[in-house]
Input
Amino acid sequence: MTTATFAGTPVDTNDEGFFTDPDQWTEAMAPELARDADIDELTDRHWQVIRFMRQEYFDKGTGPTVRILGKSSGVSVKELYQLFPKAPAKTAARIAGIPKPRGCI
Amino acid sequence: MTDTIEKVSIIVSKGSLEGIYPALIMANGARAEGMEANLFFTFFGLDAVHKKHHEHIKISTVGNPGLHVPTLLGGLPGVSTAMTHYMNHKMEKLDIPSIPEFVEMIADTGAGMYACKASVDLFGLEKNDFIDQIQDIITVGEFYEMAAGGPIIFT
Output
């Protein structure tokens, strides 16, 4: 575990950069986390996904996979890969301050 | 820094439910992890992307010891269809997409999908017989070029 600072506040993250305590996250940290993932600006569409990620995490105990995001977040699989290039569920989870989503599909 | 895989090439050679799903799960998982992924459909694996067959993929109930159904029983008419229904129902409960839906989703993640030229010729097929997600019909040489630098998985 390491400590990183976002929006001036120290938080606990794991080796892969995921928050270990989602309650330490604030919305003000998101733009900085996004820049670390090479996303310059968070649009409303990004925020829709980020809020859905946190909602799912707190409801179900794990963040959603790409398949669940594509089905239920209101953002299609294609658009997810445009908004969060490479690995949408992982990247969005990092920005949303939740642990890495677990799920095979 | 631990080792990472940047690209995987997955060959689908079987036309059974249990032959196709693992390949799709691995391709989808690779894209979810941010890897480049290409799927190559060859021989009976072509059924997974064949317009007329992709909605009717069945589990093999003969010569499949893992299913724990005696081979003679598995060969009776309707047994494969019944087992497939049962399996599809179980998967639906777990929210696992059907094969056509899964293939479409994997294409949407940006994975490449190709049909094997030798098999396409063998079965007398053409590009039009396949779903739109099939980008091209390619030779084995072109496959190796595309796969260069990453692991190849054969299912």
Summary: Chain A has one domain: 2-96. Chain A touches chain B at residues 65-68, 70, 76-78, 81, 86-90, 104-105 (CB under 8 Å). Helices of chain A lie at 30-36, 44-60, 66-72, 77-83, 88-96.
